[in-house]
Write a structure and sequence with these properties.
elongated, alpha+beta, 2 domains, two-stranded antiparallel ribbon, six-stranded mixed beta barrel, 434 residues
Length: 434
């Protein structure tokens, strides 16, 4: 609906300009003459306006790219795009979370896989079992607490893609007794690749269980880890240790993150139909940091758009007023050939719309040209961790409504607002016929 409205506004502006060019050709020549009389200041002001529209476009594309990267980063740090929990799990404390597990996760997964509406929306589904315990280094007699994520080794590759392996390898589909640790946890107890370790965990029956294991790999966590560090373990091994077949969450990875809301609606409908005591959350609600960052970016972009609109309104109004003042000397001459106040007002309206279209199309061409050049190699952003140029930023637009709004609708809206006073002035002018 929004795109249709923008297209209608742009189409009406084009019709007005084409009509004046084709039917009122003399009026067009006169307007160009007026513009030429104040050529330097008009061109200078137009350049400033176009600069702000191009700046808004580039900033919007850059912020949009950051949000997309944030989305991918969040989804690929063991969260996914959507997570399904047992009701009460998120509100429970660390010690009580084992009381709020999904008892039949395979039933949920089968239901999702067999649903026709979800066909093509979901890429991967993974059960995860989250628990806590302590890890002991027998050689150095050191120990610390950990937060464990139990997952299928194959699914861990996709859901934990942003956890960078720095030593050893990821979880094995063969050696189920081996674990991987984040670098923070490994360094705190002095563990390294192939080190032996002992896990001490409270199982679902409330008894302490000790399990000997070996470190298969060390990774650098893509997201901020817990206070104690993260440990990964194959989910079947974790279930044997904890004596449970349940899961803390069922995580979904989508083919297209833009369809998160659509997928959420379908899953919530399934939960209501089958009366499951489950709750579903999207990726952007699973992290306070992510939610706050997206809101911050949105506020910045809103400020840029409002600033651009105000500057555009002011400067277009300045051009129109300068040209209107220049036209006063010609009013009586125009009156002698049959012009009246409405004719003069119509000329001002045409001039404003013509300026808006010039601004729109020049902003469009310049913005896309600069974006194309930037996107060839990207902009290097220094990394805080390495101090080098390790992150490439691009100008990306996936919301065409915002693109049309900035480059086409904003110039027309600001021009219409700026036309009010000059048109009123022309309607009130006194024409003396000789």
């Amino acid at each position: 609906m929004g795109i249709l409205l923008n297209v209608i506004i742009l189409s009406l502006a084009l019709i007005v300009v084409l009509y004046t060019f084709l039917v009122k050709y003399t009026d067009t020549k006169y307007l160009f003459l007026i513009f030429k009389n104040n050529f330097r200041i008009n061109v200078f002001v137009l350049i400033i306006i176009i600069f702000f529209y191009v700046f808004s476009f580039l900033c919007g594309g850059f912020l949009n790219h950051l949000i997309i990267q944030l989305e991918e980063h969040t989804a690929r740090t063991n969260i996914g795009h959507i997570q399904i929990y047992q009701k009460g799990y998120l509100d429970s404390s660390r010690n009580e979370s084992m009381k709020y597990l999904i008892e039949k996760p395979l039933e949920i997964i089968t239901l999702l896989n067999e649903n026709d509406d979800l066909n093509g929306l979901i890429s991967n589904i993974a059960e995860q079992l989250v628990f806590s315990g302590s890890i002991h280094n027998e050689e150095k007699n050191t120990s610390t607490y950990f937060r464990a994520i139990a997952i299928e080794p194959f699914e861990s590759i996709k859901f934990g893609a942003y956890d960078l392996t720095i030593s050893g390898s990821d979880l094995s589909k063969v050696n189920h007794q081996e674990i991987t640790l984040d670098s923070k946890l490994a360094s705190s107890v002095g563990l390294s690749y192939s080190s032996k370790a002992e896990l001490r965990i409270i199982d679902s029956l409330g008894r302490e269980t000790k399990t000997n294991t070996r470190v298969r790999g060390i990774f650098q966590a893509g997201a901020k880890s817990s206070d104690f560090g993260i440990l990964k373990i194959p989910i079947e091994t974790a279930r044997k240790i904890l004596k449970t077949s349940s899961a803390s969450t069922v995580s979904l990875f989508l083919n297209d993150a833009k369809k998160t809301e659509q997928t959420l609606a379908i899953i919530n409908n399934l939960i209501e139909q089958h009366h499951f005591e489950l709750e579903v959350l999207p990726w952007y609600e699973l992290s306070d940091h992510v939610s706050e960052t997206i809101k911050f970016f949105s506020v910045i972009f809103l400020f840029i758009k409002v600033l651009t609109l105000i500057i555009s309104f002011s400067l277009i109004g300045l051009i129109l007023m300068i040209n209107t003042e220049s036209r006063h000397d010609d009013i009586n001459v125009l009156a002698s050939i049959g012009a009246n106040q409405f004719y003069l007002a119509r000329m001002v309206i045409f001039e404003g719309i013509f300026l808006a279209l010039i601004i729109s199309f020049l902003s469009f061409i310049i913005s896309f040209s600069i974006s194309y050049l930037i996107n060839i190699n990207g902009l290097s952003i220094p990394s805080e961790k390495t101090g080098g140029d390790s992150y490439q930023a691009y100008i990306v637009w996936d919301k065409w409504l915002d693109l049309i709004l900035i480059l086409f609708t904003f110039p027309i809206i600001s021009t219409v607002a700026a036309l009010i006073y000059p048109v009123y002035k022309m309607l009130c002018v006194r024409v003396n016929l000789r």
